[in-house]
Amino acid sequence: MMSPPKKDNVFRALDRKLGAVAEFTMRQYRTKLSTWVILGVGFIAIFIVVLFYVDSMQQEIEAIDNDGDSMDWDGDGYPTGQERIYGTDPDNPESHPGTFSPPIAPDPPEKWINEDDFDWDLSARGDTTVGYDDDGDCRLADSTQSQKDNNRNNVECDIILDYDEMRGEWSEPNSDRLVDEDPDEEKYAKEAIHRAFLLAIGKMGFVFLLGIFLPLFLATGLIREEMDNSTMHFMLAKPIARRDIFLGRIVGYLGIVWPYVIAMGLIVGLISGFAGPSDGFFRFADLGMWMAIIFATMLATLVYGMLFCALGTLWKHGIVLALPFAAWELGMAILSFNAPSASILRFSVIGWSLNIIDAASLVVWPNMNLFINMGLWGGGHGDGGWWGNSLEGADALSAFASDTGLGISPIATIVVSTFVLLFQALILWLIGSAIFKGKEIE
Question: Are 106 and 98 in contact (CB under 8 A)?
Fold first, then answer.
């Protein structure tokens, strides 16, 4: 015998009604030329930025002598670094390894460029990070015991970096005599530019541009267009509450926007994974960053979609009301780069969305703060202290990288930010539904 059909419960009936409204909304969007124009403009904007990134990854970065030991200051044909190792005077043209028996041939200057690289413990999470003498000129040069331990930490020929917990930053290196770092500029620059690109495209390209641009043009008219075209009567003629219609329209909008965001994230993630610097053929370590970027953008399009749909329901020129909100969010995005702890950021959508990306960057790249400061110091050390211009890419990475500003762990930051964004979406849904319920449909 055939079993009797199951009776609809409240949730099954609601699911069917929402599904019908959402499916109708998606079908409407797929048949509109304006939808594809908007999605196409977003794709072109992101793709142009990606082209600049790919081009930067193909350029060669000039190697620079950061510590000056490739220079022949006394003109005797021997680089300073070689003279220091053999104990001759790099400032005296009569003192050089060529006077030895048998004489020692001079090294080519390029041997003393990029010979050290950064060897500090980048994974260190404690108060100090230590680097050691790579090229040997500290240990082999004519230095006294005290000169080999200028920083007074009972370790010869090393560099100390102290982390200030109160200020949240690394101090200037405290180095023993002739201990320096001469990093590979191309290696550092490619890594710094890659990280800066991911943060820039994630924050300003995905969360801000796509996160606001798509809802502004696709969600503002979700209810208003049907009201103005007098087609809302057909929906209201069905036994569906206005609150459910509002939610169903949002679900339909997300059915278009979210797959688009995911596809864009996967495409750009694949390009950056293959084009970015890596020891292998692909940067698998960045997958966590792209998951965070996609997730943050999806939450942003949800909250902005609720907001702009409510504004469109409130007034037929809802986009005019939406533009000041977009300008406010742009200001909050810029503020988050310079003052991530500012309390006013808690009253924005983008502040919480960017928190997710910043927190994810600290999980994926735990050495971020030290890596930035290494590049800003320039890697050179002379008798007068640390010197040299910042390495290429360090300034850009410093501009786009931020702390989360919440004072909690990165994982906790992601959880809290997600909860706040979902709560904002819930409140805006209730407000938008209330506005829609009070509207007269002509």
Answer: yes
- pLDDT tens for the chain, 442 residues long, are 455 555 555 445 556 778 888 999 999 999 999 999 999 999 999 999 999 999 999 998 888 887 788 889 899 999 988 888 888 888 999 999 999 989 999 999 988 888 777 766 655 544 565 677 777 777 776 667 777 888 887 888 887 777 666 666 666 677 787 777 778 888 899 999 999 999 999 999 999 999 999 999 999 999 988 888 777 767 777 778 889 999 999 999 999 999 999 999 999 999 999 999 988 899 998 999 999 999 999 999 999 999 999 999 998 888 999 999 999 999 999 999 988 889 999 999 999 999 999 999 999 998 888 788 778 776 555 443 444 568 889 999 999 999 888 889 999 999 999 999 999 999 999 999 999 988 877 6
Place of tokens 């082209």: 51
pTM flag (> 0.85): yes
Neighbours of 409 (CB within 10 A): 13
Domain residue spans of the chain: 10-61+185-437, 71-112, 119-180
Contacts of residue 310, Cβ cutoff 8 Å, sequence gap at least 6: 428, 431, 432, 435
One-character DSSP codes across 208-241: IIIHHHHHHHHTTTTTHHHHHTT-HHHHHTSS--
Report how far residue 63's alpha carbon sits from residue 267's, in angstroms, rounded to the nearest whole number: 33
CA distance 374 to 162: 13
Question: Are 323 and 304 spatial neighbours (Cβ–Cβ below 8 Å)?
Answer: no
Peptide bond into 340 cis (omega under 30): no
